[in-house]
Specification:
141 residues, Rossmann fold, 7 strands
């Protein structure tokens, strides 16, 4: 399914609607250029999961963990990782697929070798105009 969002608020709202359908163990793979809106979309998912804290990009921490009223959110940024072994060594792989956790992974391509091929949701965000973002949501990578 494809959507066009013309503001951060629309992107966050779409993320919230999407997040309402996620269950524990869900894995969401985000792709898009720097600044495309991946973290904004994740803020919407967090809201749907009942996260009250401010959601920040995990660019420098690699993972941010948030306890939501419905379940935990683990927000990964694999940009600085070279392969799945890096994620395993950092302990990130331990969270993937946990029953009470939704994992959202930005730059997932860098650790694709440890991710399941099925049972994931993929969200591609791209610029489609000056302030527009096209967001495509599909199952599996």
């Amino acid at each position: 399914m494809k959507f066009v969002c013309v503001s951060e608020e629309e992107t966050k709202s779409l993320g919230e609607k999407f997040g309402a359908g996620l269950r524990g163990g869900s894995i969401v793979l985000l792709s898009g250029e720097l600044g495309a809106g991946k973290t904004v979309f994740t803020k919407g998912i967090a809201k749907a999961l009942g996260v009250k804290e401010s959601v920040l990009s995990p660019t420098f921490t690699v993972m941010n963990e948030y306890d939501g009223e419905k379940m935990r959110l683990c927000h990964f940024d694999a940009y600085r990782l070279r392969c799945g072994d890096d994620a395993v060594e950092a302990g990130l792989a331990d969270y993937i697929g946990e029953k009470n956790t939704v994992c959202v992974i930005e730059w997932f391509e860098n650790i694709a070798d440890i991710l399941p091929a099925r049972g994931v949701k993929q969200v591609r965000i791209s610029y489609s105009g000056e302030n527009e973002r096209e967001i495509e949501i599909s199952d599996d990578k």
